[in-house]
Amino acid sequence: MRALTAAEQISRGQFEQLVARWNLLPDGALDRINEAAYELAGEPLLEGDDPIRVDRDLLGEMLT
Questions:
Q1: Alpha-carbon distance 44 to 55, whole Å?
Q2: Residue 11, Cα to own-chain centre: how many angstroms?
């Protein structure tokens, strides 16, 4: 998630490259990140398919 701090949105290809660094599948990573966001705030952190929009306010909350 820290890698998303500079982005308001990220292309699907960029997201796939990002999660590949940790040997994660893109859809699984997206689901897990959003599950954590729902647990914390009741809303998703990442929305859309291409581009993927990042809720910057929620991201800040999740990283603190």
A1: 8
A2: 11
Q: What is the pLDDT of residues 7-48, one digit of tens each?
A: 899 999 999 999 999 999 999 999 999 999 999 999 999 999
Sign for the CA dihedral angle at 25, 32, 53, 59 comes to negative
What is the value of pTM for the model shown? 0.87
Contact residues for 4 (Cβ-Cβ < 8 A; gap 6+): 10, 46, 54, 59
19, 21, 24, 28 alpha-carbon torsion, rounded to 10°? -10
> Is the Cβ–Cβ distance between 27 and 11 less than 8 Å?
no
Distance, in Å, from the CA atom of 30 to the CA atom of 52, rounded to the nearest integer, reads: 10
**Rg value, the chain, Cα:** 11
